[in-house]
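Let's do one together. I've listed all components of the complex below, 674 residues spread over two lines.
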Amino acid sequence: MTLLKPAQKPAPAASIDPILRVTAPDMKRVNDLVLSMAGSNVELIPEIAEHLISSGGKRLRPMLTIASALAHDYSGEGHVKLAASVEFMHTATLLHDDVVDESDLRRGKRTARTIWGNQASVLVGDFLLGQAFKMMVEVGSMDALAILSNASAVIAEGEVWQLSAAKHLTTSEADYMAVIDAKTAALFAAAAEVGPVIANKGAAEREAMRDYGRSLGLAFQLVDDVLDYGGSAADLGKNTGDDFREGKITLPVILAYARGDEAERAFWREAMENGRNDDEALARATALIHRHGALEGTVERARGFGAKAFDAAASLPPSAARDALLSVVEFCIDRVS
Amino acid sequence: MTLLKPAQKPAPAASIDPILRVTAPDMKRVNDLVLSMAGSNVELIPEIAEHLISSGGKRLRPMLTIASALAHDYSGEGHVKLAASVEFMHTATLLHDDVVDESDLRRGKRTARTIWGNQASVLVGDFLLGQAFKMMVEVGSMDALAILSNASAVIAEGEVWQLSAAKHLTTSEADYMAVIDAKTAALFAAAAEVGPVIANKGAAEREAMRDYGRSLGLAFQLVDDVLDYGGSAADLGKNTGDDFREGKITLPVILAYARGDEAERAFWREAMENGRNDDEALARATALIHRHGALEGTVERARGFGAKAFDAAASLPPSAARDALLSVVEFCIDRVS
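Okay, and this is what the predicted structure of the assembly comes out as:
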């Protein structure tokens, strides 16, 4: 599965290596800062933070901030703190999400809540969010603060919305896209937009990076939704079928439900709304999703957003950082290939 | 029980009326802003927010921000947004606290988590915190942002600490004071300090208001701890004995434990560390606390902090706002009279 026509392709295609390479020196400092800001005399905090930090996340979001700043010729120090803030916002969200979703595994490791309890997960999430805001304030850019604080409220709003809509098969594709726009794409958008902001670029550059991040985030989430019905826990480092077992209505389900007959819809209602979601039900759900081409349908939409993201970053002047931003788009989509 | 020598007393003594009166016009706008910023298309958010807003809290913290700004001749608009931010920070903390403490009642009303569940409480708390930061950013004062974001991290750190220390009777008075310094006094201090900050006053004024808020917050929390062993649910709008049943080591317990003999200490360990905290145990705990004068000991300390708060605010030039800040100190302490 490839997203882009060969002529458009950045080289090397479908790899996270270019952004790893471009951001490596700064990401080293981001990682040091993350460790130091997760420090506390209250032992539980560094313990939990270290568990999360060592859990093998790709740190995609802070890399976007670094690469976006570099692609706009930023030469100051603020991007490191903003990138660490973005990572803390993300980590805080994961901690709270695992509590809300009652998840036991994330990226193949036990979640913090199963080790230290829901209480500690809630509070350490709050602490990391507080530390994120402290770092942002230190950078001293009101515009960056406005972007990231807005994202923080939007993400939480999206989560609440998903909580209310979670088990309703009446969720429309548009409703679902609005949820992931808030809960995933908003942070990607903010992470990318703060690059031109601290580099003192104009409205056009900000808008391009916001569009890039937002479209990339939407594509990323849709691909995640596909992987939840298509991979194995070993591949993904998460439980395949998690979304199903948690009764989460994602786009593959929405499409399969819309394309299904009355008997199938009754099955979906029983599974998602009444919690009949054992392994047998998951096998049937996966079969229905495949039969109706719901994964392909979801990937097509992801590709559409990927193309938008690509175009938005392609408007930047040529640089290694720009090429890194471009290659991330294909990397995100090619996870399903 | 009176805190202050008659000569020092502001008139009228021991009443919240002076600060209500001084802040009334601005608090009307704070309340409107709180309602509007708690609005969302996601129905659950205004529903939960309204439950909290109508739950009869005194709004002491935002009133401190307003009165502190007025006492420093502030004539702009920023204090209203900062006061609303302070209230949202507090409300978010309450939502998360109730989840962490598994509380069923707050101010005599069912907690949000018992009506809408822990999940919604966590996420709506996150949303309100995001909205708080958005409002702070709109005010445009980096110093105010630094103070409030720092308080946010400190509060969460204090909560985690309390979680780890909660059931250990080895908690010393100093440890406990450090916890309430973080989880209660930090927000009082920040709420008061942002007043002179947005009024462009100097370091001395900032320090005076920070000391005022911090000392008031410590006194307030100690009095709360006393009330938990001394009032009735009807008086307090909260369950008396909550702290005991939640195994929270507060100062009255620390003092009674320190002053108790070995048999009493065994009882305390059984109750607080092993959860033998039924009504009979609560009755014995309350009797021991009274026998050892642990409530009086706690109130004495509260008075000490009250006196510090009083002196800090007394350094301000005379004004109705200053007198209101002074009378709040006595009001807080006289709740135990």
